[in-house]
Write a structure and sequence with these properties.
Glutaredoxin; 8 helices; 2 domains; 181 residues; 62% helix; four-stranded mixed beta sheet; alpha+beta; Peroxidase, domain 1
Amino acid sequence: MAQLIERRYATALFELALQTGQMDLFEQEICQLQQIFIKEKELMEILQHPHIVQEEKISLLERIFKDQISKEIVGLLVIMVQKNRQEQIQGVLSLFLDKVQEAKGMLTVVVTSAIPLSEEQKAKLQKKLHTSLQKQIQLQTEVDPTLLGGLVLRVGDQWIDRSIAGELQELNQQLHAIQLV
């Protein structure tokens, strides 16, 4: 349910950005907002706190962002607080940026590996993904030593698990299915 709500808000903001010709401005401001929410964790805690009244939360948002970001994005934040959807703010911001990237023909691929990838490995992977997906690829890399080796790719909401841990788990499931384990 939360993802549906996030998608609706992100789509509405995206369509507004298209209609008003402010795609690049909104993209830049949303990136700034994300950084603020990451650095200032207390802000999100205040917005989600059940004992702080809605009017104070809205007033806080308007004071902080009035001259920093466009009135449309401030309006989105205010509406989300009024509808008690503060927990979905960051999801909406991320989905909006995904829509912008898709409109620009770009695709973000999250690559998780057991050890950090070298620049050469990143370049080769990016080239292969570009060739197979026919889109400009932006790689985000993460390290998870529990993978043991290999890669896990996340493209949108699809996961491609080619890690050793994933292969072992799949083998385990197959063995359980034929009742050898």
